[in-house]
Amino acid sequence: MNILSIESSCDETAVAVVRDGREVLADCIASQVEIHRTYGGVVPEIASRKHIEAVYGLADAALDAAGVSRRELDAVAVTYAPGLIGAVLVGVNFAKAAALALDLPLIPVHHIRGHIAANYLAFPELSPPFLCLVVSGGHSLLVDVRDYTDLKILGSTRDDAAGECFDKVARVLGMPYPGGAALDRAAQAGREGTYALPVARVHGNDLDMSFSGLKTAALNLLHNAQQKGETVDIPSFCADFSRAVSDTLVPRTAEALRRTGRHKLAIAGGVAANARIRRDMEALCRARDVTLYAPPLRLCGDNAAMIGAQGYYEYLAGNLAGQDLNACATRSLEAPWHPA
Predict the structure, then answer these.
(1) Which residues have a Cβ under 8 Å from the Cβ of 4 and sit 6 or more positions away?
(2) Which long-range contacts (CB under 8 A, 24 or more apart) does 102-106 make?
(3) Terminus-to-terminus CA distance in the chain, angstroms?
(4) I need a surface site. Which of 13, 42, 143, 267 has the fewest CB within 10 A?
(5) How far is Cα 124 from Cα 116, in angstroms, rounded to an integer?
(6) How much is the pLDDT for 138?
(7) HEC letters along the chain
């Protein structure tokens, strides 16, 4: 089954062709990083306009790269939630038009379900059930993947996402957008234990997370040093900040593994590319005799191949949409598909 998939939830326009949920025939991405770098972050209106400019040509490029004609497509999948509403609308409207013109089924895909499904592309042997830690710019979640379309959130952030904190701190440090990757690179040369940064404990659900206090403490440390004319050891600060984020994630992941009895752990999302987090998850899995699935860096960020992968399983589950499909800025990944 050949699925044309579209992703436009933030600042990457992406179109892919995926076969049977596991084989990537083409994955084309038009990045807007250089445009938004000028502003230190994503400007939603600019992102939407650039998606409009790029998506049609990118779809043709993906079909050419895949060696698949329009007549050989079997379905169209698209991110419909969550994301920047104007950006998501571009992808949704293009997908609706393509499905209508080609008389193909239209598959709505939740963006975070797509991130989890990126592991299916990297690891053909992976199948549910397993535990997944999702860490991205807008989400920090522990998800029990009971089946391909049956997912249960066990814990989530109460405030900021880990990725948002990385990007905000990196911006204050004067690092280029996207800041999380730059901060990670700087941390490689740092010496841990130089700066004391807090790790929050959440009451009510010990699998939930909180990063706002860490972000505030980190920003206050930097601002106070600036006001006093003190020099901050940037690599060591970045190393300690990365450790504090990881020290929030690892114990909760360990507890989720204990509660669920899962022996497979996947990680997903842009922050899953962070070297410290990967290293600590590898150590956790060795200690617990758990198999770790960490996708290659190219599949951690936003891409359309992951949408095609999850789209295949949504199709098998009968989760199809009509021409009334609309974009949603927010929506739980647990919710089964139905018109919003």
Answers:
(1) 15, 16, 17, 59, 62, 63, 73, 75, 76, 77, 98, 308
(2) 102/70, 102/73, 102/76, 104/73, 104/74, 104/75, 104/76, 105/74, 105/75, 105/76, 105/315, 105/320, 106/75, 106/76, 106/77, 106/78, 106/320, 106/321, 106/322, 106/323, 106/325
(3) 27
(4) 42
(5) 13
(6) 85
(7) CEEEEEECCCCEEEEEEEECCCEEEEEEEEECHHHHHCCCCCCHHHHHHHHHHHHHHHHHHHHHHHCCCHHHCCEEEEEEECCCHHHHHHHHHHHHHHHHHHCCCEEEEEHHHHHHHHHHHHCCCCCCCEEEEEECCCCEEEEEEEECCEEEEEEEECCCCHHHHHHHHHHHCCCCCCHHHHHHHHHCCCCCCCCCCCCCCCCCCCCCECCHHHHHHHHHHHHHHHHHCCCCCHHHHHHHHHHHHHHHHHHHHHHHHHHHCCCEEEEECHHHHCHHHHHHHHHHHHHHCCEEECCCHHHCCCCCHHHHHHHHHHHHCCCCECCCCCCCCCCCCCCCCCCC
Which amino acid makes up residue 296?
P
Token couple for 61: 């490029």
Instruction: Yes or no: say if 225 and 232 are a contact pair by the CB < 8 Å rule.
Output: yes
Q: What pLDDT does 339 receive?
A: 61
Orientation angle between helical segments 162-172 and 234-260, nearest 10 degrees: 180
Per-residue confidence at 40, pLDDT binned at 50, 70, 90?
A: confident
Per-residue tokens: 291? 């198999």
Distances (CA, A) of 272 to 81, 93, 94, 116, 183: 20, 30, 29, 11, 14
Q: What is the pLDDT of residues 254-284, one digit of tens each?
A: 999 999 999 999 999 989 999 999 999 999 9
